[in-house]
Amino acid sequence: MAIEADLGQPIEAPIPSDKDIEQSIAEAGAATYWIMANHQRVGGAVVVIDEISNRNSLSFFFILTGLQSRGLGLQAWKAIEREYPNTKVWETVTPYFEKRNIHFYVNRCGFKIVEFYNKFHPDPHQVSDQVHKEEDDDEMFRFMKVMGSESDYNSAVYMSGL
User: Is the N-terminal amide bond of 16 cis, ω within 30° of 0?
Assistant: First the structure.
């Protein structure tokens, strides 16, 4: 797994947790997708759409480990952007140690890092009993992408609702 390579050691529990994924899927405005390529599932995404403010969030996004670095993630992200053309702002978070994710969101998708959550500045959306049980737990970057006029994207990857 990419996270194990980044940390240099095996992980004991899945990241994100099953509970976090279930809560995200159950959130009001959530839409879940399989990321498909060549008629096969290669990843998935959960977005939370606010039709009133058009400030939307990407809760979860993944490409299967063996299929990363092939452009599938970027194509899938562009498909999500096309699916929600009224979006004014996209937001997401990722753990501080996920260098691959930071590169993807900033250098490939055009997000900006706007906040760093840590024990001195906790994420206000985290459940209080989950925040910083250990010294470096839950250090996260918050990303934001303000949408403007975007050019048309050509993509071989498409999104399929769950």
Answer: yes
Name the residue with higher pLDDT: 24 or 155.
24
Does domain 18-126+135-160 correspond to CATH entry 3.40.630.30? yes
pTM of the complete model beyond 0.85? no
Q: Provide the pLDDT for residue 127.
A: 59
Residue with structure tokens 């990857």? 157
* Span 30-46, average pLDDT: 95
| Residue partners of 47: CB distance under 8 A and separation at least 6 | 30, 31, 33, 56, 57, 58, 59, 80, 84
Q: What is the number of other CB atoms lying within 10 angstroms of the CB of residue 129?
A: 6
Q: Where are the domains of the chain?
A: 18-126+135-160
CB 141 within 8 A of CB 96: yes
Strand partners, 160: 34
Contact 148, 29 (CB under 8 A): no
Give pLDDT tens digits for 101-138: 999 999 999 999 999 888 988 888 775 444 445 555 67
